[in-house]
From TrEMBL, chains A, B:
Residues 20-87 form the HTH gntR-type domain. SMART domains: FCD, HTH_GNTR. InterPro entries: GntR_C, TF_FadR/GntR_C, Tscrpt_reg_HTH_GntR, WH-like_DNA-bd_sf, WH_DNA-bd_sf. GO terms for molecular function: DNA binding; DNA-binding transcription factor activity. It comes from the Bacteria. Keywords: DNA-binding, Transcription, Transcription regulation. This is GntR family transcriptional regulator. It comes from Phyllobacterium phragmitis. It holds the Pfam family GntR. Gene3D superfamilies: GntR ligand-binding domain-like (1.20.120.530), Winged helix-like DNA-binding domain superfamily/Winged helix DNA-binding domain (1.10.10.10).
Amino acid sequence: MDILSTKGEKLAERPETGDPTIADRVFTTLHSAILTLQMPPGSKFSEAEIAKQLGVSRQPVREAFIRLAQIEFVRIQPKRATEVCKISEAAVLNARFIREALEAAVVRDACENCSDELIDQLEDIVERQRKAVAVNERELFHDLDDAFHRSIAEGSGRGLVWTLINEQKAQMDRVRYLSLAFNEPVVIREHAAIIDALRDRATSRAETAMRHHLSRINSLIAVLRQQHPQYFAATQAVQGTDAGPLNLRVPALVKPAR
Amino acid sequence: MDILSTKGEKLAERPETGDPTIADRVFTTLHSAILTLQMPPGSKFSEAEIAKQLGVSRQPVREAFIRLAQIEFVRIQPKRATEVCKISEAAVLNARFIREALEAAVVRDACENCSDELIDQLEDIVERQRKAVAVNERELFHDLDDAFHRSIAEGSGRGLVWTLINEQKAQMDRVRYLSLAFNEPVVIREHAAIIDALRDRATSRAETAMRHHLSRINSLIAVLRQQHPQYFAATQAVQGTDAGPLNLRVPALVKPAR
DNA sequence: TAGTAAAAACTGGTATGGTAGATTTGTAAA
DNA sequence: TTTACAAATCTACCATACCAGTTTTTACTA
């Protein structure tokens, strides 16, 4: 089956080299395939199978799996199977909570720090979103949506925060791919409201607008869960990594290396 | 040699099995060694070297490296070396920003949702902190500090958020290990203030108290940077993963499945 | 036919050898 | 002494073989 996409985000590359490894490319490929639901939640596969499909050895596939497991895209069951994590409603709502808290803080910062150039840039992005809607370019629209939020973070000197938001967003993005009707006009209106508040340096209003903008997924998820129950995990299964009771220390074991 | 501990932070274990792999144990060991500065920032080492020291093959060490790289504990330079990431002031301040935004949101939630049992539990933790100070048990004190913040998150139904806070905290914890004088009495007083606000369900006051409590590291880091310049990265080196200008798709990199 | 146990066919985990690229070292020339 | 360049020695990456569990299939028994 010709499942694997060849496009993907630049999540995998090393900062030091413009020369991504095979493991990097496998990671990018699988990441994209999972995000776009080409590999649907709950589907099982094996290192060997993917390796064969991609024409590489098991080793880089295995390393890609490790990284995917760390961002909870897949769940590795030793000696058993590896499967694409189902969408956990709790995890999505948690991601939204985190994103809202962070973006609210970021947009407050932006109100106080940001340059007029940022506002111009944001308006440009929204304008391009209007055009994307006009020609029905859904992918472009979503990329521009990312760019909008990202620009706010970077424009207020919080570029590093975006890295984290982006990770959290991944779980939500799978939901987004499930939803065919995303109501782009409303998104554009909300973006415009955020820009207005930024221009007026109205901190509270900007925060409120951002929180409202990010809250829409709450209504989406319930509907989508109904439509695609097979993609969702059982309700109470939190599926998170438990860090244990107290994070106790381990004894000293490794000598520092020179 | 009898090398790898089987106890320790449960960061590494798989949910499905009580049987951590060698790679899990290597990860835990190295994670702890880096956190406690036994492996100081900037020190270089190799897969083979660590494998030899620990008496295992290179493979599980390599997988541990991958996971450590993902949380920015080490930096893998292909064909060159792997080194413990230096402490980046920008990264620490970023982590503090994220933590403050999240914990502020969490404590607001806690004011509205939390049970009286939580408040009792928090008071118990602070009481144990007092005892820890009395007998000068620094490690225990810090563990209890973690427990305090974690309990608030879990008590308000935001346990998953703690997972993320904990990751961010790691960068800050290395700084904490550098600091011999942590001013425990002030910490205890601030914890008490948070509890008071929680008991009164005073949302804004709780948030303010929490933000104030988390802001102390700002003054710490400048001093520590002076004292231990070799552990810190150059100022402008942000050292974060840059995802590129727009998250545009990358061209086809992997041959599609055969 | 139903139940059960052996065996075959998977799974991911680990060890090891080889490769390409980066760094260091050493040697020879200016 | 300094410089240039080649060889030796690192590095992490990849492929492969093997191992120990798990699951599925198969075949035999009641």
